[in-house]
């Protein structure tokens, strides 16, 4: 990431992951569930400021190899706009909801000894796991609006039918108040090892580099409920798949663009073209055009001069001040269409996703905002404002990101309050791997193993695709 919402309130969306619409396909799929909370105009101002400052904290450092401050996350008071899903840790396995973030690469959860900021969330009891190993290495994570700290450990981690033993993660005993909101207990990074603060191989990368997946890909499809007043607190939110792409969720071909960097860190693509209201915007070239494709961020942040150029194409738009500094205001009755290209096809962003929040008097805040990142971080951060409009695929080898048009089936989920909300289940493990190795101990590939398993392991993954938030 529903209550009935007036136009002046933004909904915080959570998504939960369950079974695939086409479970007969190779690989395993997780459905997404969306949770909504109302937001007042006053709360939005606080959120807007924290969101922008937090994203600059996340990408503002000098990350030549690793993030010196670890995985950076912001929590907006009363609004959780990151993707979170269920994975299981330990022997016996116990499931926890964790934020999903393609913009970071570490796994951490709140521990049972947590003395600060964890009272309302499930915590990990290390003594209950027979496979737990305490590494004893201090670990800290800095966020735009807080921090978490603890120690590194190793244990068996499971998700969606896959199991990785000896996975390095952090057990945190101090978390800034309101950084975690029930039921979220931590964070799972889905970026590359190069930016892992622990130096550990990320869970997904161990699976993708071995024989665990039929295909070395993970993919996302998200729903939209922003303009649905009848939406309930929990709604079906889409799908996250590991090891395959679900052909029922997209149409046409998936267009892959190779990552332009020699060292894989963030998931990066160059922005080669921007069009607003039918008018082309001049974009920088080379590294200045690089954009992180970040599921943990809902909005789109970019260089100040190019953000200004975008809003210059929208009549009567003006820069925000105070809490909305860095954002732009424009008349709510203006339908704004923005398209992006990354060197191939042109992809449109719905006007519903561009319109972030009405702040009164028929004035709205746009979802593109000015952002300053660090020297080695990409200039653009492209989040769910864009990703809700495409089927997105993150491919391990060759390192690339693919987009495809959403199918009619995917589009039919948008605003559909009659769809059943998926629930979390824990079943059998289809494929196993060990962190630091590339071999599997059961089955050659998970797709084949899944076909032989009558009860696949399916964890409910919840995402918060918010029209207003992100890590």
Please outline what is shown here:
This protein has 471 residues and is mainly beta. It is built from seven helices and 28 strands.
**What general form does the structure show?**
globular
Strand order of the largest sheet: 2-3-8-4-7-6
Number of strands: 28
Structural class: mainly beta
Rounded Rg = 20 Å
What's the end-to-end separation, in Å?
A: 11 Å
Put simply, the count of helices is 7
Question: Share of helix among residues?
Answer: 10-25%
Average pLDDT rating: 78
Describe the main β-sheet briefly: 6 strands, mixed, barrel
Description of the structure:
The protein is mainly beta. Helix content is 11%, strand content 34%. It has 7 helices and 28 strands. It has helices at 41-59, 203-209, 304-311, 351-354, 384-387, 408-412, 446-452; strands spanning 28-35, 83-89, 94-101, 107-110, 133-143, 146-159, 162-175, 184-189, 217-222, 234-242, 250-258, 268-270, 273-276, 279-281, 290-293, 300-302, 318-319, 328-331, 338-341, 346-349, 355-360, 363-366, 368-370, 380-382, 391-395, 400-406, 431-434, 461-463. A 6-stranded mixed beta barrel has the order 2-3-8-4-7-6. The chain has a 5-stranded mixed β-sheet with strand order 12-15-24-16-23. The protein has a 4-stranded antiparallel β-sheet with strand order 14-13-19-20. Strand 5 (133-143) and strand 6 (146-159) form a beta hairpin. The radius of gyration is 20 Å and the shape is globular.
């Amino acid at each position: 990431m529903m209550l009935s919402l007036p136009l002046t309130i933004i909904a915080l969306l959570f998504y939960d992951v369950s079974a695939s619409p086409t479970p007969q396909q190779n690989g395993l799929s997780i459905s997404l569930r969306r949770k909504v909370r109302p937001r007042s105009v006053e709360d939005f101002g606080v959120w807007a400021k924290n969101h922008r400052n937090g994203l600059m904290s996340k990408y503002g450092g000098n990350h030549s190899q690793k993030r010196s401050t670890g995985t950076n996350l912001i929590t907006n008071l009363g609004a959780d706009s990151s993707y979170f899903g269920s994975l299981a840790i330990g022997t016996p396995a116990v499931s926890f909801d964790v934020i999903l973030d393609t913009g970071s690469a570490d796994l951490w959860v709140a521990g049972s000894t947590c003395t600060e900021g964890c009272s309302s969330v499930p915590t990990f009891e290390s003594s209950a796991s027979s496979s737990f190993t305490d590494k004893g290495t201090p670990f800290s994570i800095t966020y735009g609006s807080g921090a978490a700290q603890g120690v590194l450990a190793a244990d068996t981690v499971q998700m969606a039918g896959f199991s990785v033993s000896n996975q390095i993660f952090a057990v945190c005993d101090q978390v800034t108040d309101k950084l975690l909101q029930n039921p979220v207990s931590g964070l799972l990074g889905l970026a590359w090892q190069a930016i892992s603060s622990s130096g550990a191989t990320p869970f997904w990368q161990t699976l993708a580099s071995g024989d665990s997946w039929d295909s070395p890909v993970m993919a996302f499809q998200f729903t939209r409920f922003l303009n649905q007043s009848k939406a309930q607190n929990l709604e079906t939110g889409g799908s996250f798949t590991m090891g395959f792409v679900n052909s029922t969720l997209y149409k046409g071909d998936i267009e892959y663009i190779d990552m332009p960097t020699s060292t894989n860190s963030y998931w990066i693509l160059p922005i080669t073209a921007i069009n607003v209201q039918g008018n082309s915007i001049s974009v920088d070239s080379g590294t200045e055009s690089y954009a992180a494709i970040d599921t943990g961020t809902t909005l789109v942040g970019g260089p100040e001069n190019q953000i200004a150029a975008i809003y210059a194409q929208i009549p009567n738009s003006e820069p925000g001040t105070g809490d909305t500094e860095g954002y732009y205001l424009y008349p709510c009755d203006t339908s704004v269409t923005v398209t992006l290209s990354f060197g191939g096809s042109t992809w449109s962003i719905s006007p519903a996703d561009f319109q972030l929040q009405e702040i009164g008097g028929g004035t709205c805040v746009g979802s593109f905002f000015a952002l300053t990142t660090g020297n080695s971080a990409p200039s653009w951060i492209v989040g769910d404002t864009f990703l809700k409009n495409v089927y997105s695929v993150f491919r391990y080898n060759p390192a690339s990101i693919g987009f495809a048009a959403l199918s009619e089936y995917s589009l039919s989920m948008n605003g559909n309050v009659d769809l059943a909300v998926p629930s979390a289940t824990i079943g059998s493990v289809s494929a196993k791997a060990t962190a630091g190795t590339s071999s599997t101990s059961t089955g050659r590939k998970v797709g084949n193993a899944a076909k032989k398993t009558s009860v696949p392991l399916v964890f409910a993954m919840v995402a918060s695709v918010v029209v207003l938030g992100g890590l």
